[in-house]
Fold these 2 entries.
Entry 1:
Amino acid sequence: MRTISIVVITLVFSLSPVAEAREKRARIQEATITLTSKGYQPERVRLRRGIPARLTFVRKFAATCATEVIIEKYRIRRELPINRPVVIEFTPEKSGELEYTCSMKMVGGKISIR
Ligand SMILES: [Cu+2]
């Protein structure tokens, strides 16, 4: 009986860090960024380093050159069809400021990573 309880205790202690790690990995951070006639709103989003991020871009404005969004540092380039949400997923690896822009680098916004 004593042997069994020791085994159970050992199992609980050895499994809990795994469960914790799994929970951490499952976390996700999300933000929606809308392109209006005033540019990207919000102009800046904040993300945590090391946690998968899901950014939803919605272009609600036709008369703009920002028909695509580019996050150069992560080699991301996506078309932005009008009124159709575009989901971009990546994990911010380095803290600091990350920029996204149109292909001419005229229209864009900032992502603060810490
Ligand atoms: Cu442009």
Note: The chain has a mean pLDDT of 85.
Entry 2:
Amino acid sequence: MTGRTPPIAHETVAAETFDYVIVGAGSAGSAIAARLSESGRHRVLLLEAGTDDRWIWLRVPLGAGRVLLSERGLWRFFTQPEPRLAGRRMFWPRGRVLGGSSTINGMLWVRGEPAEYDRWRDAGCAGWGYDDVLPFLKRVERYAPGDPARRGTQGPVNVVQFEPDELGAAFHHACQQAGIPATADYNGAQYEGVGILQTNTRRGLRHGGREAYLDPARGRETLVVRIGARAHRLLVENGRAVGVEYRQGGQRRLARARNEVIVAAGAVQSPHLLELSGIGDRERLASFGIASVVHLPGVGENCRDHLHTRISYECTRPITLNDMLGNPLRQAWMGLRYLLRRDGPMAACTTTVHALARSDPSLDRPDVKIQMHILSAEDPRDPKRLVLDRFPGFGIGCFALRPRSRGSVHLASADPEQPPAIVANYLADPRDRATSLAALRLVRRIAEQPALKALIVREVRPGPAAQSDEALLDHIARLGATSYHPVGTCRMGSDAMAVVDHELRVHGVAGLRVADASIMPTMVSSNTNAPSFMIGERCADFILREAGSNRTS
Ligand SMILES: Cc1cc2nc3c(=O)[nH]c(=O)nc-3n(C[C@H](O)[C@H](O)[C@H](O)COP(=O)(O)OP(=O)(O)OC[C@H]3O[C@@H](n4cnc5c(N)ncnc54)[C@H](O)[C@@H]3O)c2cc1C
């Protein structure tokens, strides 16, 4: 079943040799590189296609929105036209910078639902139940006020809880009036409920993979970080991954791995790199003239994402970001406050409170996430159309926590510099349509509660006339957007469509692991950054244990 990648025909290239070669310095890759190199026993090469851009908007929390309008630090991917979203091609940015998507993301810190990790374990991923992953979730984070039995207090990633703004506080109250319980720590004792959001920030600045894992590792002799280094394919000899061919500064280079190659290029690019390397569905690869190294039909399949939709409202009072960003004096106040105290709106995200809730009380667990966004815009997720409303406005966004619809990410060309073809396939499963409708109706129910109603002039989008399923689905089709959470394209498991085993080893290829959001079998009922860091920590632990230099566990 296994073969060999054809030799490089073009030019002779000198190869360097390391113990481990990691592709991708994102959330997972940063953690793996830092942990492997800190042991002092292994020489590690970390290849990152992006730069080490320290642009201010990549660091100030409120700048996350601004980053999406720019070209800096981003892979600007688009999906294929989405049939159930009016044929729109959805903008799917990913981080192209040290820290990967953790350097451009919204910084919301959500570790996932314990029950969903248990389902991973029960579906055949031994060692991935909540009790198994908890030590690694704790290892990642430094959350001072947390219950140490459940929360990490010494980890590299600093986590803080917001001070909710006035709208967030009203939303918090309104959720309870609508029957949603309050939770003091949704990452701790009680996942379900309305809670004040936590973010991975430190002293008012982003604290992602770069800041938390890579900056402290700078200067280690055991870690070499190459930026602007884009992996083109993995080298496989006699069924074993032995290195990576990459391009840097216009030059083709080779890095050989004595022990292992770890692919951590994210849910879009990890399957892409595997396919470029002959690891994927044999027939699909043949159609691009790529020789099969191992037939793994699951590569690039099982792609899941959260489809986010908002209902937006005009607010009775000028307490929204629309008012602050639209007024030069208030902007100056925000800037000054941030410079002097590192707090205020610039140190926060556009959302400060969320609810992990049941759209129907008869369900046995939460199925939707609802969150308050303190701004409103014509199309808040489409960078080309981001024009804030001229009135005080806010939105309440929602998505189905565990989408059933599955898309794919596959080669669109054998040229490694060309983007892959992404099919999100949003709402293909009728259960996702039903949950999305239920979520929108729950949003309206929350908005009708006295605590929030007092702040609402009118519903702006889609507007009160949109009551039927058809009208609401039309609203989703026009304004629904990614929550930026693609996962699952190199799914963990032991069946024929699984790509990696429970220790993240690629089936059928020795010396090769994939470790990033792509290995998640399903969504862990949450945002995906904290789980991606955890996956990186686990991968490093598997490797170090195998190499006989385990740190803890
Ligand atoms: C705009 C945005 C907002 C988000 N907001 C949140 C949020 O608020 N909370 C949350 O929990 N999650 C959020 N997410 C999702 C979360 O950030 C990601 O799920 C997580 O960072 C994924 O980590 P990863 O390690 O899988 O991949 P990434 O962090 O994406 O890392 C992949 C890395 O590999 C590099 N790479 C890719 N291909 C190659 C190649 N061929 N050669 C070399 N390098 C390569 C990339 O440049 C990148 O640095 C957001 C994501 C985005 C994009």
Note: Residues 8-12 have pLDDT under 50 and may be disordered.
